[in-house]
Amino acid sequence: MKETACAKNKEPEPGCYSNIFAVWFRSSRWRQASKCKRHIRSLQCSVKIHRGRRECMAKHSRSDMAKLLNNDLLPEALPKAKQFYEDEKRLSAYNQVEYFCTSILQNFSPLDRHSDIHLLPEETKEAMAGLIFAASRIGELKELQIIRSLFVERFGLEFDKDCVYLRPGHLVSSEIVKILETKTPRDAFSPENLFEISKNYQTNTTWVDSITKDSASRNNLGIASSDMAKKEKPKTSVSGKTVGEKNSKFLDSDIAEKEKPKTGVWGIFTKKN
């Protein structure tokens, strides 16, 4: 009985509390942290691929629109203008998504430590909210859906709904909301704007063509063809004959003298020794 009483009154060792704290700390860490990082980096790669495609599409749409406007075909140019407008908006959205990914990766440790959204830095919360909002509007970036589901698992469904439906107190930036909104400004496709876009395109095209022609007129050493013509122009002497012709005549006469067989006093060929 005395031994059991002593065992009850015995104080726990100091190391017990540290072990309990270590177990609690490990359980509070995010197990999907590495997976989330991997998908965010994969999302950055996908953004680069889709951006290249969109830039090519926007370039062709603007080129076709400029050609149609030059031929006074405004009704036919309107669909091209709408396509160009959508491409430009999507390119801006890609830039925002890439910025959000970079912001989260640069300060990822708070996401790993805290499961409460209110304990995260403001910049990290805005980046997460922007990715969730973009995931509900951009369908071609499949990684966005995976990242969104990981955020729901970590921070709850209410935060996801606040970002998607833009509830009061949401943390989605106004810039990404403006880019991905479906409403189109009234004057977006006005003739003035279309001709301004066409004018800028023609200016850029003229500038590029001038550079291309200038580079085409130069050889691999960067010397213009006119300069080469000046350098390669043969020099003339006072008599009007070129130096090359004069030198060639001297060379021919020397060779003829060397190759001419020797003759004796009577003009008879001498025998070779």
Structural write-up:
This protein has 273 residues and is an all-alpha fold. The chain folds into two domains: 33-188, Ferritin (Up-down Bundle); 234-273, no CATH class. It has twelve helices and no strands. The protein has helices spanning 2-9, 14-28, 33-70, 74-106, 109-113, 122-135, 142-155, 157-164, 174-180, 191-216, 225-232, 243-259. Helix 4 crosses helix 6 (122-135) and helix 7 (142-155) crosses helix 8.
In whole angstroms, the N-to-C terminal distance is 140 Å
Instruction: Give the SSE string.
Output: HHHHHHHHHHHH
Number of domains: 2
Shape: elongated
Fold-level CATH name of the largest domain: Ferritin
Mean pLDDT over the residues: 75
CATH H level of the largest domain: which superfamily? Vacuolar protein sorting-associated protein Ist1
Number of strands: 0
Radius of gyration: 40 Å
CATH class of the largest domain: Mainly Alpha
- In DSSP terms (H or I, runs of 4 or more residues), the helix count works out at 12
Strand content: under 5%
**CATH architectural type of the largest domain:** Up-down Bundle
Low-confidence segments: 4-8, 15-27, 205-216, 218-225, 228-232, 241-253, 255-273
Major sheet summary line: none
Percentage of helical residues?
over 70%
Secondary structural class: mainly alpha
